[in-house]
């Protein structure tokens, strides 16, 4: 065997021996960064889809509500950041729940969960407190509404799959850590769908009455207010007592009363004689 052939075999052997080490490093990297890659693969296409819907609506839908919106690019970027931050925050919450329940490999787990928690919270806070108020979100909330709807839908799917996995782990009962992991995933997805669903309901101006009507329920008994009844007016030909007495009262001096204690034919004392509307008449 020549020396060159021996050197070539040694080189190939060293390369083959390095393959398991490289594969192990790849697996470790996927174990550490796999969730982050999955979050990016979930958030970025959704942000691109939101931008495409807004842009195509402006181009081809003359009656769309956001036709005059000039911030669709900014709000699509904010939507992507919001989705990415929400995914990181949910991943950190899930990791912390698993650690607090099992205390399994607490140090390493804490090192992986806390960065996602901090970065996700910072990104979501920056978008909600700085990014969205600087845009025309009040006039055109479609981008944030789509983002909240995407998070709500993803949380709902995660809740259903998490519940199925939790029951499967309970019935299999291969140990407490798998059950705790499935429970942490289910609780995180449930919290996500509740918070995002509340935000989505606020952006779409839904309330309890809309939900009841959507379910086919009635609003309950309603009070019907009757119109006020107008007071009757005096009709012509009514007796004199029905009409108000508006004639002015004329005061008569005492001397005149002594001379004329009454008026013949009236049956009324002289002190209550009525004068004409123009003013009191002189005593006769």
Question: How would you characterize the overall build of this protein?
Answer:
About 14% of the residues have low confidence. This protein has a domain of 192 residues. Helix 1 crosses helix 4. Helix content is 66%, strand content 0%. It is built from 7 helices and no strands. It is mainly α. Keywords: Membrane, Transmembrane, Transmembrane helix.
Task: Set out the fold topology.
Elements: H1 3-60, H2 72-102, H3 106-131, H4 142-172, H5 176-203, H6 208-214, H7 254-259
Helix pairs in contact: 1-2, 1-4, 2-3, 2-4, 2-5, 4-5
Please tally the helical runs, counting DSSP H or I stretches of 4 or more residues: 7
Number of strands: 0
Mean pLDDT: 73
Q: Low-confidence spans: pLDDT under 50, at least 5 residues?
A: 208-222, 242-247, 256-275
Largest sheet: none
**H-E order:** HHHHHHH
Overall shape: it is elongated
Q: Tags for this entry?
A:
mainly alpha; 7 helices
Report a brief summary of the structure.
Helix content is 66%, strand content 0%. With 284 residues, the chain is mainly α.
